[in-house]
């Protein structure tokens, strides 16, 4: 009998307490991460900027790869003013917005840092290397944008994570959906950005849009 009375008393206490209970929403993984990092959510920032600012900016800023690379060779300052961007502080090279239209002469798709060597002038030689992921080297997309800058971020780590988030975004949105077989000889159209290459090295373009034809 004492056990029955104790159980009844506990049940009554729970019933009386229920009306005053509050249901607390369990945060999503993204919300929890943002809270833990003081509100810093680079993936969300990039997703919010992508269609609203990133694509329109690069579409307006970019010249054909032939025009951009030729001007950068003959007059770097003119090319930088017309097609380029870099942070005022720091030692990063100029990063240029460019449109590529050419033929794939080599497709390296076995590596996780896959790429398409592309001929844009019809001489059968690669003029530009287009990254197609999933691993994307560098932070060319971030570095080409004049509406973001390092001073808006808490530290170098956040700035780096922000740059990486652009690569992750374009890979999930576009690059991972690209075909990976029988690409050599096909045409490719891409809009993207590339850092000024070292002498004798191919330009390494990170695309924001890309289309492979027949």
Given the helix and strand composition, which structural class is it? Answer: alpha+beta
Write down the overall geometry.
globular
CATH class membership: Mainly Beta
Give helix % range: 25-40%
Arithmetic mean of pLDDT: 87
Order of helices and strands: HHHEHHEEEEHHEE
Count of spatially separate domains? 1
Q: What spatial order of strands do you see in the largest sheet? A: 3-4-5-7-6
- Report on the biggest sheet: 5 strands, mixed, barrel
CATH architecture field: Beta Barrel
Q: Runs with pLDDT <50, length 5+?
A: 6-18
CATH homologous superfamily heading: Nucleic acid-binding proteins
How many whole angstroms does the radius of gyration measure?
25 Å
Number of helices: 7
From the N-terminal CA to the C-terminal CA, the straight-line distance is 84 Å
What proportion of the residues form beta strands (DSSP E)? 15-25%
Instruction: Kindly state the number of beta strands.
Output: 7
The CATH topology: OB fold (Dihydrolipoamide Acetyltransferase, E2P)
């Amino acid at each position: 009998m004492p056990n029955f009375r104790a159980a009844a008393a506990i049940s009554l206490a729970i019933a009386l307490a229920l009306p005053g209970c509050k249901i607390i929403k369990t945060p999503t993984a993204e919300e929890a991460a943002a809270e833990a990092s003081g509100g810093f959510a680079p993936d969300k920032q990039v997703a919010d900027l992508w269609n609203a600012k990133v694509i329109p900016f690069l579409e307006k800023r970019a010249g054909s790869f032939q025009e951009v690379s030729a001007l950068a060779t003959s007059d770097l300052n003119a090319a930088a003013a017309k097609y380029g961007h870099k942070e005022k502080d720091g030692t990063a090279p100029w990063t240029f917005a460019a449109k590529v239209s050419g033929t794939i002469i080599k497709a390296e798709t076995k590596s996780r840092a896959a790429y398409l060597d592309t001929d844009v002038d019809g001489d059968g030689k690669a003029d530009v290397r287009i990254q197609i992921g999933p691993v994307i080297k560098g932070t060319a997309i971030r570095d080409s944008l004049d509406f973001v800058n390092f001073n808006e971020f808490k530290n170098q780590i956040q700035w780096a994570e922000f740059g990486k988030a652009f690569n992750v975004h374009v890979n999930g949105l576009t690059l991972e959906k690209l075909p990976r077989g029988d690409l050599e000889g096909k045409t490719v159209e891409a809009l993207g950005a590339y850092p000024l290459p070292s002498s004798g090295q191919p330009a390494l373009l990170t695309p924001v849009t890309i289309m492979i034809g027949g």
